[in-house]
TrEMBL record:
Gene giving rise to this polypeptide: cheW-2
Pfam families membership: CheW
Record protein name field: Chemotaxis protein CheW
Stretches assigned to the CheW-like domain: 9-156
Alphabetized PROSITE patterns for the sequence: CHEW (PS50851)
Lineage: Bacteria, Pseudomonadati, Acidobacteriota, Holophagae, Holophagales
Listed PANTHER family: CHEMOTAXIS PROTEIN CHEW, CHEMOTAXIS SENSOR HISTIDINE KINASE-RELATED
Signal peptide interval: none
UniProt keywords, alphabetically: Cytoplasm
Superkingdom to which the source organism belongs: Bacteria
Cellular component, GO, one term: cytosol
GO BP: any one term: chemotaxis
Subcellular location: Cytoplasm
Amino acid sequence: MSSAQTTTYQQVLCFALAGESYGIPILKVREIQGQAPITRIPRAPDYMPGVINLRGAIVPIVELRKRFNLGAIQDGMRPVIVIVEVMSRTLGMRVDAVSDVLDLDEDQIKPAPDWGAEGTVGKEYIAGLATVPNAEGGDSMLILLDLDQLLSLGDIKELEQAGG
């Protein structure tokens, strides 16, 4: 008697940030925008440079480099904005570049390691790690983000109040 084995896949949108590869669930992605004019919101946290007008909707933007303390964008880079749904709210994430969409087998996804100390390297944002083939024929690590942990409810409420 043979049992049918089913493999569960998760589709992720891959993007680059400070030379590393990150992934987010494709079902959370609404669209990808080229650089749009950002309106600064007074008293917003430094990792929230402001808001954009997306076809009449005001969308707060999170600068992931600043949120993860990865340094400033290098001169000549043209970041993009990935529009996502986080906790039933629309949010833009500014990233260095978007690369592709991958199907990850659930067996490829490993939990983030325990670094021991609380608050280390923003581990609360990491949903898992996956090893994926790279262009050089080797393997690369893909950091999978937990978008629901990206902002606290307090952060979102603060942005909504600042944006009117």
